[in-house]
Amino acid sequence: MDARSGLAHIAELVPRGSRVLDLGCGSGAFLAQLRDERGCRGIGIEIDDAMVAQCIRRDVKVLQLNLEDGLSLFDDDSFDVVLQLDTLQNLRHTEQLLRETARVGHQAVVSFPNFAHWPNRLSVLRGRMPVTKALPYQWFDTPNIRVGTFADFELLARQCGLRVLDAFGLHEGRRIDRWPNWRASTAVFHFERG
Q: Of 64, 132, 147, 171, which residue is 20 to 30 A from 187 by alpha carbon distance?
């Protein structure tokens, strides 16, 4: 997500006072924001040493784990909301973690770079992989294992038996509801088990 701009739109999906699990929480800044502004209690999962240290400095509870190992240490419905912001594209076992996300949380919010955004399409038509704010890496040095689109995730959600509560795009901090697969650089889905 463009430097995590647009997080205000995602914060609105998290009810006040919720128990939150943030998968791939980075520095813990968003969890700290939810704690301070919405009274949420939460824990982050992060693999990067430097990011874990930043979480600790922010007084954000964090576990250093590899998401590829799953979420078996959490019981069903352990959290009100599970966040998976800009992590989906970095995972090998996407479907498995998506099912685990729905298992441990009553609801979940997932966001990822929307490869179908019109500038990306134009770049591919010109014969080049896109490099944008949402996809800031060259094809040969990207941490992204896969690319996805708004429409792709809708199909995956149905396949996993998830009920989408809200779906929209984000671009430069603005919410995009009309033609998000074309107009949004980031896809956002709010869902629960079906």
A: 64
Residue 28 gets the label, from left (phi > 0), alpha (psi -120 to 50) or beta, of: left
Tell me the one-letter amino acid at 171: H
**Segment 123-163, tens digit of pLDDT:** 888 898 888 887 788 888 887 778 889 888 988 888 888 99
Strands of 18-141, DSSP E: 19-23, 41-46, 61-64, 79-85, 105-113
> In this structure, what token pair is assigned to residue 61?
């509870």
E strands present in the chain: 19-23, 41-46, 61-64, 79-85, 105-113, 162-171, 174-176, 186-193
Domains (ranges, CATH) in the chain? Answer: 2-193 (3.40.50.150)
Residue 73 sits at the vertex; the CA angle it makes with 75 and 25, to the nearest 5 degrees, is: 100
Beta strands (DSSP E) in 14-117 are 19-23, 41-46, 61-64, 79-85, 105-113
- Distance from first CA to last CA of the chain, Å, rounded? 27
Q: Both tokens of residue 138?
A: 């060259």
Asked whether the whole model's pTM tops 0.85, one would answer yes
List the beta strands (DSSP E) in 47-177.
61-64, 79-85, 105-113, 162-171, 174-176
